[in-house]
Structures are given as structure tokens and as C-alpha cells.
Amino acid sequence: MKFIIIATKDENKTQESFLPHMDAESDHAIMLYKEGFIRELYSRTDGKGAIVIVEANDEKEALEKLSTLPFVKLGLLKLEI
């Protein structure tokens, strides 16, 4: 089943908070894409995050896998399904 995820940057975090983790975030997102979990990924034009389309059995699985992303682990991104 496909799920649309809205990922929003935490407004209390500075851009500098994200910079040290950019490579790890990109690498992990690419891994999830190669696994077939992430199907599509779009930057938001407001610059506040991304829209992600994922393939999962249910919402729980979708959130669990996305929670492995460094930005989510560090509380830099909030996720909504």
C-alpha cells in the first residue's frame, strides 16, 4: 500500500543543525529507495521539508522505517501521514 508522508523541518532548528547530517540522511534515503520502500521523493517549494511516497504494509511500518532516517532520529523532521 502506498502512503504519502509530509516531512516538515522543525522550525526551532537552524539550518546549521541539518548540515552535519546531510550526507547520512542522503545515504539512508537512497538505501530505502533501493529497497523499494521510498517510491518517490519531492522537495517542498516552501523549503520546509519534503513529500515522500512510500510502499508499506501499514502506517506503523511506514513510520518505523522513516524513523530510521537521521533527521527524524535527531528530531529535525516531523512526519505526517
SSE run: EHHEEHHE
Strand content: 25-35%
Give the mean pLDDT: 95
- Described by the principal axes of the CA atoms, the overall outline is globular
Low-confidence stretches: none
- Order of strands across the biggest sheet? 2-3-1-4
Coarse structural class: alpha+beta
Report on this structure:
The chain has 81 residues and is of the alpha+beta class. It has helices at residues 15-18, 22-34, 59-66, 70-73, and strands at 2-9, 38-43, 49-55, 77-80. The longest helix is centred in the middle third of the chain and has 13 residues, at 22-34.
Write the layout of secondary structure elements.
Elements (H helix, E strand, L loop, with lengths): L1 E8 L5 H4 L3 H13 L3 E6 L5 E7 L3 H8 L3 H4 L3 E4 L1
Antiparallel strand pairs: 1-3, 1-4, 2-3
